[in-house]
Amino acid sequence: MIGSVDCEYIIYDAGSLKEKRAVLQRIMTRAKQKYNISISEIGFQDTWQRTKIGIVAITSSKMATERELNNVLKFIDSFPEIERTQSVFEWF
After folding, report:
1. Residue 46: how many CB atoms within 10 A of its CB?
2. Do residues 91 and 5 touch, judged by C-beta distance below 8 A?
3. Which residues does UniProt call coiled coil (predicted)?
4. 4, 9, 61, 62: least CB-packed within 10 angstroms?
């Protein structure tokens, strides 16, 4: 089962694109290392304090995929410098 989630985030402390990308790079690298996922910035690349991240996981069942994606979201939400505003799940 393939599951994806598109999430919009606000990065409050980013004063430039360079600061935003540093925060995102650190969070996305750690998420890739900890979970079996693909993750990328898919929107708002030229906006300082806003971003859209796409996360994809593939497992043998919908329940396992959903668990993996929810664990990744909890992990990202644990970072104090970023706040999730919207999430959209899709299943293939």
Report:
1. 7
2. no
3. none
4. 61
